[in-house]
Structures are given as C-alpha cells and as structure tokens.
C-alpha cells in the first residue's frame, strides 16, 4: 500500500505531520501540492476517501477564497473541485492518503489516524 503526503513545507501543521511520519518510519511519497496540484478528479477521489465535501476541506481564510467569493458556490461539488484544483492554496493541509483512506492531519489525533493508515 502506498502512502502519499500532500505537503506544504511552509505550513507548521504540514511539517509536524511530515515529522510524525518520519519519526514513525513510515514509507511515503511527498507531494508538494502547490507545485504539483491535483486535478479535480484526484481531489475528488482523495476527499471521498476522507469522507469530506470540498467546502469542508477548503481554506476559506485565504485571500483567493475571498476574491472568488466562494460562498456563492453553495454546495456545487463539481465547481468547488474545479476551483480548488485551479487554486491549490485553497486545499486544507496536510493530507495523508494511504490505500483506501485519507486524513487531513492537522492535530495529534488526526496524525495518529494517518499513521495508523500508513
């Protein structure tokens, strides 16, 4: 089973998840998703594995979120996925994808779940 870390090295939470994976000796591939953004289809698959809707995994405090007035999208899943793929800074981080699961690993509990699935 391959594990992938969607990582932003400038984010402290992302660095903490990477350090936890490294500390546990987990084998994973690092994907710097700002440099290598997911397609809408990839994002859809990962969010489905995490049991999340795009609007639940969006960083609404980002400047681009305000500029795009994302609230008008309501719950149009396809449109949210398109916007997030076009503007990957909107994707919550870090995300650990392993087999059939994905976890937004932003705290100790979620990092633990990510390690369990890795």
UniProtKB/TrEMBL annotation:
Family listed: Belongs to the ArsC family.
Organism expressing this protein natively: Actinomadura parmotrematis
InterPro entries linked to this entry: Arsenate_reductase, Arsenate_reductase-like, Thioredoxin-like_sf
Oxidoreductase recorded as keyword: yes
Gene3D superfamilies given in the database record: Glutaredoxin
Keywords: Oxidoreductase
Protein name in UniProt: Arsenate reductase family protein
Pfam family, one: ArsC
Record's keyword annotation contains Oxidoreductase: yes
